[in-house]
Amino acid sequence: MRQPLSYPLDTNSDNTYFIDEASKLSAGMVDKATFASDINAFYPTGRNQAALECIFTQLEAGAP
Questions:
Q1: Phi, psi (5° rounding) for residue 54?
Q2: pLDDT tens, residue order, the chain (64 aa)
Q3: Engineered SS bond to 18: which of 8, 48, 54, 56, CB 3.0-4.6 Å?
Q4: What is the dihedral of CA 7, 9, 11, 13, to 10 degrees?
Q5: Is 1 in contact with 43 (CB distance < 8 Å)?
Q6: In the chain, where are the structural domains located?
């Protein structure tokens, strides 16, 4: 079943993949292209771009 990117952030979800990938991005273990590719492969809904752009903007702004 395909899930939108917002799915792993639902309080009822026990999915850790998104958090794992986001922590790798934040730590510099993966670059933006790899992160986007991994997320789009795991959550292939075709609706992730806005969320990815938001994440990248927050990362560049130095948000915690």
A1: -65, -45
A2: 455 555 555 555 556 788 889 999 999 999 999 999 999 998 888 889 999 999 999 888 875 5
A3: 8
A4: 50
A5: no
A6: 7-61
